[in-house]
């Protein structure tokens, strides 16, 4: 579910989060409108809003594990974990973790990929939250769910900062609930915002002259 449809409609924090995300057209290949969350991280207030909304949602769900998907899940997961009193577990791409691992493969548009987790990082019966920056098809999150369920964890929910509108039709991945803060920004939205900011600056300068 989207946060705006679950009690946060009209919450100014969601608008601030959305506006802090930069759209980079045709990256990493033509036709892709890349949602760049590095600009969100540069905005302390918007970044705090992001963490606060997740923490408000999960602090009373008895979650003991926050699993972050490489790599941008590593940016949002640790502060959420600290705030709710949970441990953070990184889910990494192949050959990145030094110890014994278990692996889960998933399909990509062209080929396959894999997520790995340290053996013993999560215990049977633990309640887990999976965090990533963006959900599109849900393939990566389904692999993350598979990893955690294989070791006996209960995956409570997947939380993402950005979700494509299409995910409204499938708010469960492998039976696990999905929670999303904002929809992707469009390039037109960014241009309109830039024009409005320029107009306000001109009006402010005029008033001060």
Automatic annotation (TrEMBL):
It holds the Pfam family Pribosyltran. GO terms for cellular component: cytosol. Its main location: cytoplasm. Its EC number is 2.4.2.7. InterPro entries: Ade_phspho_trans, Adenine_PRTase, PRTase-like, PRTase_dom. It catalyses: AMP + diphosphate = 5-phospho-alpha-D-ribose 1-diphosphate + adenine. Pathway: Purine metabolism; AMP biosynthesis via salvage pathway; AMP from adenine: step 1/1. Keywords: Cytoplasm, Glycosyltransferase, Purine salvage, Transferase. GO terms for biological process: adenine salvage; purine ribonucleoside salvage. Residues 43-164 form the Phosphoribosyltransferase domain. GO terms for molecular function: adenine phosphoribosyltransferase activity. It is found in: Cytoplasm. HAMAP family: Aden_phosphoribosyltr. Belongs to the purine/pyrimidine phosphoribosyltransferase family. Homodimer. This is adenine phosphoribosyltransferase. It comes from Spinacia oleracea. The lineage of its organism: Eukaryota, Viridiplantae, Streptophyta, Embryophyta, Tracheophyta.
């Amino acid at each position: 579910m989207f946060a705006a449809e679950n009690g946060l409609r009209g919450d100014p924090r969601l608008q601030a989060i959305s506006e802090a995300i930069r759209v980079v057209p045709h990256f990493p290949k033509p036709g892709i409108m890349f949602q760049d969350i590095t600009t969100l991280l540069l905005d302390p207030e918007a970044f705090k809003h992001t963490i606060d909304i997740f923490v408000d949602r999960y602090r009373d769900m008895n979650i003991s594990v926050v699993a972050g998907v490489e790599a941008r899940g590593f940016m949002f997961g640790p502060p959420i974990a600290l705030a709710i009193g949970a441990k953070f577990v990184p889910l990494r791409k192949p050959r990145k973790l030094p110890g014994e691992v278990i692996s889960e493969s998933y399909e990509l548009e062209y080929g396959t990929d894999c997520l790995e987790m340290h053996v013993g990082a999560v215990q049977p019966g633990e309640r887990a939250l999976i965090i990533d920056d963006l959900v599109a098809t849900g393939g990566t999150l389904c692999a993350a769910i598979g990893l955690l369920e294989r070791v006996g964890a209960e995956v409570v929910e997947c939380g993402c900062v950005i979700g494509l509108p299409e995910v409204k039709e499938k708010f469960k991945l492998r039976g696990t609930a999905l929670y999303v803060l904002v929809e992707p920004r469009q390039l037109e939205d960014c241009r309109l915002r830039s024009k409005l900011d320029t107009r306000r600056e001109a009006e402010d300068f005029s008033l001060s002259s």
